[in-house]
Amino acid sequence: MEKIVQELWQHVRGTWRKRWWILPIAWLVCIGGWAYAHNLPDTYQADARIYVNTQSVLDPLLRGMTVRPNTEQRLRMITRTLLSRDNLEEIARESDLDVLTGNASLDAQVALLRSRLTLEGGERDNIYSVRFRHSNPEVAYRVVRETVDLFMARGMGDSRLDLTTSQQFIERQLENYEQQLQEKEAEIEQFKRDNARFLSGDGNFYSRLERTRDQLQQARLQRREAESRLQTLERRAREGRASGVGPGGYENSELDRRISELQENIDAMRLRYTDEHPDVVSSRRILVELEERREREAQEFARNPQAIQRPGSSNEALQNAISETESEIASLTTRIAEFEERVARLEGDVDRAPAVESELTSLTRNYDVLRNSYRQLQDRREQAVMSEAVESQTDAVDFRVLEPPRQPTAPASPDRPMLATAVLLVGLGAGTGFAFLLSQLRRTISSSQQLAAVTGRPVLGSVSRVRTPMTRHRRLSELAVFAAALGTLVLVYAVVMGLYATGSEFLLDELMGWLR
Questions:
Q1: 504-to-43, 172, 424, 508 alpha-carbon distances in Å
Q2: Of 75, 86, 98, 477, whose CB is crowded by the most CB atoms within 10 A?
Q3: What is the predicted pLDDT for the residue at 495?
């Protein structure tokens, strides 16, 4: 460590011996550097900050009712495409760059904007910064202003344009589907008219055939019941005539009616059940009791005609019942003939009917598909209309200009005070470096240790230099001159910094003009 310190001290002493080269080089570098920094053209910077609020309270309220675009993705796309050539050309036209810059070349204007216009931010906090630098403050201000306006217009207008285009597309599709539905409805109606006999009634063909067969069997059963009832009525009428019941004999029309109805019920049940069925056995027992009662009343009436009141003749009632039953049988016969004709017609169409139903099913299925698509498009149209209303009447994406662009009054660059300081340091460093280089090229031995290291032999002694008063005075004078020159350089630096700090750099312009 001591050896390193000694070597450094030797280098410092060697450089100090060449100190007179430091000042002229420092002066030349500083004067030239300060003049160059002062003559650099001023560059003005205009900037603006925009906050984009993508969180809207309408999003949870209208979820499912409207189609909301992905605002985050849309903003990322806008920031990536905002500095495209088309947009830069629009910014150049709106900013009147051809007039302000005096360059009518659109390519040159676009190149200028592309090299100096920047759009940053938006990754986390949705705050975007727009910056532009130019030697003309009016140009910088106009470019930033038009860029901010274009950014906001793209953010608010593109989604509305997309919604309008989507709504127009849906309207065209609805018209197309409506025309197809009308054509399909007309085709189904014509098909039904052409195949009405295969499609009439409810249900499919086989269910109608089975139902018609059931109706035929039911009508035949009703006719057999009516025929059985007619036979019973005719037998009762014959029995009444055979027993001598007439105007002068015993008659009980109510009892005869009950017996006749009970006999009809027994005949009807025998068509469905056996003779051992409990209902048939019970009905026969009641029938026997009623017939025995009628026989007892007839015998009692024969012994004493005044004991039982004559309720009136039942021949007319029997004849009416027989007539009604015969009419019912004739009606059932006609119905059976009709049902038989229907069954025969349906059985004759059994080969054609499935094909007709299959064609109808296919037509109906295609129609249902078109109708469902049409209804879905109608729902989408309502969503598009509401979405457009939301976009046009509310601020789905809220753009807030936090710092509007202003025309700069002071140049943003170059930073002349910083450049002046850097020039001073570079000048002193250049002078010191040149002195150090000379000390290395023309090296001298300044100590006994250095002499021993160079020769490799021991140093037996050294002769000291005696400083006379004249020598000391001359040395002090040299130091004073060196300090004065260095102080003058620092003083000139301080004056330059003061002029920049007070805004009086025009004095430097006058001085440089006088020197020229």
A1: 18, 71, 20, 8
A2: 75
A3: 85
